[in-house]
Amino acid sequence: MFSEKKLIKLAKQKQKTIVLPEAGYSDRIVEAGYILNKKEIAKVVLLGDESSLVLRYKDKLKGLTIINPKTSALFDELLKILLEKRKNKGLDQ
């Protein structure tokens, strides 16, 4: 059984990237990203409108990457991947 301390230590060693969607709609999402970044548990990417997030959370965004899914150059590629992964669940544009 893993303890919380062991999991955090393992996550710090691996330094994975975590993408947190709906950052513009939830204070809890931004707070989670802030904590993960501050404790250096993972690299954090927030999905949301950057200008809106900066106005609301400017002190908590240092070190976080923000991607606006509506204007990102990755939109078409990510949509294609999402549709492929979810086609068995009935998602089709």
Task: Output the helix-strand order.
Answer: HEHEHEH
Structural class computed from helices and strand pairing: alpha/beta
What gross morphology would you assign?
A: globular
Q: Beta-strand percentage? A: 5-15%
Gyration radius, rounded? 15 Å
Number of helices: 4
Low-confidence stretches: none
Largest sheet: 3 strands, parallel
| Alpha carbon gap, first and last residue | 41 Å
Secondary structure: helix percent: 40-55%
* pLDDT averaged over residues: 89
- For the biggest β-sheet, the strand order reads 1-2-3
Overall strand count = 3
What does this structure look like?
The structure is a single chain. By secondary structure, this protein is α/β, with parallel strands linked by helices. It has helices at residues 4-14, 27-38, 50-57, 75-86; strands at 17-20, 43-47, 65-67. The chain has a 3-stranded parallel beta sheet, with helices on one face. Strand 1 (17-20), helix 2 and strand 2 form a beta-alpha-beta unit. The chain is globular, with a radius of gyration of 15 Å.
